[in-house]
Amino acid sequence: MRIGTLAAAAGLSAKTIRFYEQAGLLPAPPRTAAGYRDYPAEAADRLAFIRDAAAAGLSLAEIRGVLTIRDAGQPPCRHVTTLIETHLKHVEQRIADLLATRTALQDLHQRAQAVDPADCGPEGICRILTTTA
Amino acid sequence: MRIGTLAAAAGLSAKTIRFYEQAGLLPAPPRTAAGYRDYPAEAADRLAFIRDAAAAGLSLAEIRGVLTIRDAGQPPCRHVTTLIETHLKHVEQRIADLLATRTALQDLHQRAQAVDPADCGPEGICRILTTTA
DNA sequence: GTAGACCTTCCAGCACGCTGGAAGGTCAAG
DNA sequence: CTTGACCTTCCAGCGTGCTGGAAGGTCTAC
């Protein structure tokens, strides 16, 4: 499987795949006689995992860590659990931060609606947006 | 109040404050005869708000939007509510993504612990970490 | 009047996660 | 045999949020 095919399968660009290889997320595949990358089918799964994890907000460094764990595929030892616990803590902290943000926004929203009736200014254009641009 | 004082009060660097001014988050203050920035006391509040919002995960662009709303300080119109609703949706999406990530990590963690007893390899060093570096 | 802390501007670069382009090699179809 | 799609490498730059440094002006204290 060449890089273009894999890219199409994974929903990524060939550029991104080369980048991931360079970043240590994807092992360097064997090459054809011509020097083309020649991927096994499993590469698509791995990329799908990377794509999903990235979409979920993990950094490439974090994903690399998780993949390394998976790649070892051995009885996980204490170090691994620690690693995972650290990831968990970070994620939970981020969730807590975002929940606070959400509350703040909800407050703002409510206040906004409470005063809404007296709508926009004389020109019919919201002053706020003109400033926001 | 000069920039260094403000920086100390806000827990930011003078560099960052100049950067925020340049980024449109902080209005350009008056200058002294010598050309030094001369901030009113309120600037510290504004910076505190920016700092907290940034810590909560809002992008500077988002914060700028919220500040613009606040600055207008007028009966908020529909546009504003829409703006806030959009922010809210983004935040809620991010929370959902992170919750999914958390679940994935928790699963991993549990599986890790289930197999743990048979601890590390013969060298006493976890193979996984040697690969992770 | 001179040292040292502070301020000014401007330009540069960091890490992150890509993306684009140039310059060239390869391969299958017509 | 040529066209065009595909591949290779390498180098450059984007946007985000800063941070650092150079080169210079200013202010305070001794």
The number of helical runs of chain A is: 6
Q: Biggest interface and its residues per chain?
A: A-B, 54 and 54 residues
Would you identify the regions of chain A where 5 or more consecutive residues have pLDDT less than 50? Answer: 116-133
Structural class of chain A: mainly alpha
List keywords for this structure.
homodimer; 133 residues; mainly alpha; 6 helices; 66% helix; elongated; disordered C terminus; DNA-binding
Tell me what the structure shows.
- The structure is a homodimer of 133-residue chains.
- By secondary structure, chain A is mainly alpha-helical.
- Chain A has helices spanning 3-10, 14-22, 42-55, 60-72, 78-115, 127-132.
- In chain A, α1 crosses α3 (42-55).
- The model of chain A is unreliable at 116-133 (pLDDT under 50).
- Chain A binds a DNA duplex (30 and 30 nucleotides) through residues 2-4, 13-16, 18-19, 23, 32, 34-37, 54, 59-61.
Describe the secondary structure blueprint for this structure.
The structure is a homodimer of 133-residue chains.
Chain A: H1 3-10, H2 14-22, H3 42-55, H4 60-72, H5 78-115, H6 127-132
Helix pairs in contact in A: 1-3, 4-5
Chain A binds a DNA duplex (30 and 30 nucleotides) through residues 2-4, 13-16, 18-19, 23, 32, 34-37, 54, 59-61.
